Amino acid sequence: MKLSNYRAISFDCFGTLVDWESGIINALRNACDDKLQQVSDAQLIAYFLRQESTILADTPDIPYPSALSKTYASILAKLDRPCDKSKAIHFGNSISEWPLFSDTIKALTHLQRHHKLVILSNIDEASIEVTRARLLCNFYRTYTAQAIGSFKPALNNFNYLVRHLADLGIKKHELLHVSVSRFHDIEPAAATGIDTAWINRADTLNGTLSIQPEFSPSIEPLYKFCSLAELVSAHKAGH
């Protein structure tokens, strides 16, 4: 199926549109001062993914900023570092400081001319509103973990997406889901029967870490791109 034939394209937000890795790494290092200087960026992201996944699975109703604060505390505990509560709270509220990828705005600007664009995010309602304003895009719908009641990679989130778009007249085969994370998005979306596009950004860690043994998916995406810019180029070329 050609990319242009999809009526709707849904996006993971943080990691795909927003550079959460840089945001997480900078926020962690700023909060911990010099305590993490011996820990590499790759180690920090690996710690973050493991701790966050456990917290989200164990507490599916937790607001995402609170989940970030708990993840911060868990990482420091794993590294035998003391945790300052005020710094944990600041880390949880750092979402608005996370940068956008350089190709995000141009990609969304192009794609919204041809498709209904949707966000499916593990974030809370308040945080997504701040982020949506920065994305400069008129999203057709936004679905958050807070509204759904569970966090990706739960299949419930993708069934929710399919069900709500179906109520709006968009069928499952008319939807493409786009994400950088095979663990959080590509595998559960594909398992739900949604076509998927994996954005494996060469300059980020998540694409590599999400195919490590503990995060390894078994379902291949329908499309693979190195960036949103490459997806847009394929779209313009009629692929």
Automatic annotation (TrEMBL):
Gene3D superfamilies: 1.10.150.750, HAD superfamily/HAD-like. It comes from the Bacteria. Keywords: Hydrolase. GO terms for molecular function: hydrolase activity. The keyword Hydrolase applies. The keyword Manganese does not apply. InterPro entries: HAD-like_sf, HAD_sf, S-2-haloacid_dehalogenase. Pfam families: Hydrolase. This is (S)-2-haloacid dehalogenase.
